[in-house]
Amino acid sequence: RKKSYEISVELDNKHYISGNLIGIGYAYIRKSDYDSAIINFEKALAIYEELDDKAGIGVALQSMGNAYSFKGDHEKSIDFHKKSLANYEERGDNDKLIGCLMNLGWEYNKNGDYENAIAKFERALPLVEELGNKQTMGVIQSNFGKAYTTKGDYDKALESYDISITIAEELGDKNTVGYVLKDIGHLYLQKKDMDKALDYYERANAILEEVGNKHGIGYSLDRIGNVYLAKGDYDNALEHFGKAKEIHEERGNRSGVMWSLLGMGDVHFNQGDKDKALDYFERSFDIRKEIETE
């Protein structure tokens, strides 16, 4: 991307320059360097505005929203997604409008604003149905499930998750089935039904292992550890947090390692070993500081 960017600069082709800046921004997102991503997206946005390239402006605004989402600044993410939404509406770009509505809904849900989240997913669904895109229909139903879980409307959440799983099974998408089962496990964890939570997390983990999804396996093992922690089964909790930590380390997922260490600290704290708990908490906190200061 950088080589392509250098060539576009030499040619003084502003459309290519801005397009390459967007690509470089997403490369930084993949490296978890969100500030650098934002800088590149801002540069691209300025060029698109100078060119009065409405389509490019929409893409740059949505990219900014995505970067702030990854950074954890959900208010700024919502602000940029709203601006990109207005851009896509004005131009009648329904394909990009669908993605933007889904992003906005997801951001609202993260903020606990489930009513706005549900409203955005409801608006996106008929547009997706019109296009006949079953995979995206399944994603929207899964997002409905998350929003209804946040709202505490567990019956509606389960209905949405069931539709999502049915679609994923029709498409042969085992990966999505695994993730939705994990979400159902979270629903039962929120309901304090630990046996059902454990059942769904273990079913999710089995499928994610079958498809070789290490990222999903690591986090499902963490969730299983949390259930055992809540049940007071500290040996099993520690075992699962430990396995999750190994997978996160293998993948270079420091955020995952941070959460596994935190879970292990919670186990030792509940066992009354305050010194060992403090050691794990400090190691977890050190990783968090490293991630935040990069």
Short summary:
The chain is an all-alpha fold. It has helices spanning 2-10, 14-30, 34-51, 54-71, 74-91, 94-110, 114-131, 134-151, 154-170, 174-190, 194-211, 214-231, 234-251, 254-270, 274-293. It starts with a helix and ends with a helix.
The topology string of helices and strands comes to HHHHHHHHHHHHHHH
As an assembly, this protein is single chain
* Alpha-beta content class: mainly alpha
Total strands: 0
Helical run tally:
15
Sequence stretches where pLDDT stays below 50 over 5 or more residues: none
Percent of residues in helices: over 70%
Chain-averaged pLDDT: 91
User: Can you tell me the overall shape?
Assistant: globular
- Please describe the biggest sheet, giving its number of strands, its sense, and whether it closes into a barrel: none
- Strand content bin: under 5%
Radius of gyration: 21 Å
- The separation of the N and C termini measures 22 Å
Could you describe the 3D structure shown?
By secondary structure, this protein is mainly alpha-helical. 88% of the residues lie in helices and 0% in strands. The chain contains 15 helices and no strands. Helix 8 packs parallel to helix 10. The longest helix has 20 residues. It is globular. The model has no long low-confidence stretch (mean pLDDT 91).
Secondary structure: elements and pairs:
Blueprint: H1 2-10, H2 14-30, H3 34-51, H4 54-71, H5 74-91, H6 94-110, H7 114-131, H8 134-151, H9 154-170, H10 174-190, H11 194-211, H12 214-231, H13 234-251, H14 254-270, H15 274-293
Helix pairs in contact: 1-2, 2-3, 2-4, 3-4, 4-5, 5-6, 6-7, 6-8, 7-8, 8-9, 8-10, 9-10, 10-11, 10-12, 11-12, 12-13, 12-14, 13-14, 14-15
